[in-house]
Amino acid sequence: MQSSASDALVALHRGVLATLQRRMPPEQSSEPLFELIRALTTALSRGDISLQLHDGAEVPEGIETDGWPLLHREALVASGWLDGDQAVLVLNHNTLSWRRWQAAMQELELELLRRCFQAPIHATNQDAAISHPSKNNDLSAEQQAAVRAIDRYGVVLLSGGPGTGKTSTVQHMLLRAYEKQPKLRARLAAPTGKAARRLQDAIRSNPITAALPCTTVHRLLEARPGGFGRHRRNPLELDLLIVDEMSMVDLELGRALLSALPTHCQLILVGDSAQLPPIGAGAVWQHLQEPDQNKRFKDGAITLTEVYRNRGALAQMSAVLRDQGLKPFWSQLSSLPKTSNITVHYSQTRQIPEAVHAALTQHLDHLKDKASALGINAHGQPDQQQAQELLNILDTSMVLCPRRRGPWGVNAVHQHLLNSSEPQRWPSGLPVLCSENQPELGLANGDLGVMVGEGVQQRALFLCSDPSGDSRHALYHPARLRSLEPALALTIHKAQGCEMDKVMLLWPTLDDRQSSALLYTAITRAKQQVLLFADPAALALGRCTTILAS
């Protein structure tokens, strides 16, 4: 299974190298030069569009010859591949990039900066404290700075980890904007349907913001085969847009979003740069959060650091992982008391741990009982309250895996618990994942649902969104869904944007350079508890630190 991904990467590398040699035959060929292209191609397969060549830079995957990075840099300069207008690569100081994506990222960055320093449509000359201080006295200085920024900047970057109050800050920012301009045309969006609905639920506590439409970025841009219906010639009719979970936005989507916004539209971008970068090329949020880039936005860039949500050891260990790395994380994890809300259990990776099997069986039984009690009217529509109660169970527990294939992968979990991969034979109560955008049904890639009924009565229950952002529960025959997967377990990538009460994380030991971001993203999906299952072989080798994502 694993060799197929490796073979595809080798084929990609060979194709890129052959194209470069054909278009621009190198003046001098060498193994270090070919290794550098292999490393660039491998990085691009993970969404990274550049490599660092400065002294002391980490040796990237694909480099085997000694002398990194000086020897490889010399080989690159001698090749002539950096010369002329047709050059595919560009070396800017110590950063080697693909010219195409580097130019696109620079274009996006410059457009954001241009928008940042234009006055918002609701701006006034009042630069005083936030109005209604009695309603905002629970805000930290960082949060108040973010609320003030909405009066001055056309683009606001709001960064912070879990529990730092990003969502409550966003709500106060919205209230501030509506106070200045009651007829403001505002919308909220996120890369996945689950993240969009979670954001919408969080702002419903205030009547002013409760009715704000919230949808996926793709639906907002009216995604269609070959592009988007909203663009520079057909822009969105908005004065303010808030986009959450920006760490999941790649360069192509970021550019499409900016192209569709009218020139006066204020943009508030929210995210956590320690999470996994997007699968597509170009990690926009991670780029904007680099110190040299972030400071260009002046006070329009705010980072929230104070943690408000009581997450116990989860908060402590996610901070260790983010700030110190993998080795300190594993070292300190083993010294936590057994009563901590993050615990590690060592188990062989060839078998699904018995504790995971038992928890999933109980979870599935609970869902099946609720699914059998779901009321359905004569028109085939579910009782809305009962349907929501059923879907809420999905947020109580989830198994996460760094990869899809191999031991402890998502497929292994489903093979262990399901008798068939055919949807028509799946049991009632089974969690399912819509893995393709189907706007005509109100579904987005990443939406979670539940199977209801069996045989001819079998349907899939989902919470769907219409173009305005309003939601409703609907039952669909599996044949209407182009891509439906079981979801007793999810890859960490697929779980991005979700939050669950308890996460059971299966963590084998294969090499990958995104291990820290993978592990951080996984444990920050949990609101209350993480049960981490790790291979004891990794502990014996002293490197319980690596994993291959796919």
Describe the structure.
- The chain contains 20 helices and 21 strands.
- A 6-stranded parallel β-sheet has the order 6-5-9-10-4-11. Strands 12-21-20-13-19 form a 5-stranded parallel β-sheet. Strands 17-16-15-14-18 form a 5-stranded antiparallel β-sheet, with helices on one face.
- α1 packs across α2 (31-45), α6 (141-149) packs parallel to α7 (166-180) and α13 (313-324) packs antiparallel against α19.
- The longest helix has 22 residues, at 2-23.
- The chain is globular, with a radius of gyration of 24 Å.
- The N and C termini lie close together (11 Å).
- The model is unreliable at 125-134 and 540-550 (pLDDT under 50).
State the share of residues found in helices, binned by percent.
25-40%
Radius of gyration: 24 Å
Low-confidence spans = 125-134, 540-550
Name the shape in a single word. globular
Through-space gap between termini: 11 Å
Helix segment count? 20
For the sheet with most strands, the description reads: 6 strands, parallel
Question: What is the strand arrangement across the widest sheet?
Answer: 6-5-9-10-4-11
Strand content: 15-25%
Give the rounded overall mean pLDDT.
86
Number of DSSP-assigned strands: 21
From the structure above, extract its key features.
alpha/beta, 6-stranded parallel beta sheet, 5-stranded parallel beta sheet, 20 helices, 21 strands, globular, disordered C terminus
Give a brief description:
The protein has 550 residues and is an alpha/beta fold. 37% of the residues lie in helices and 18% in strands.
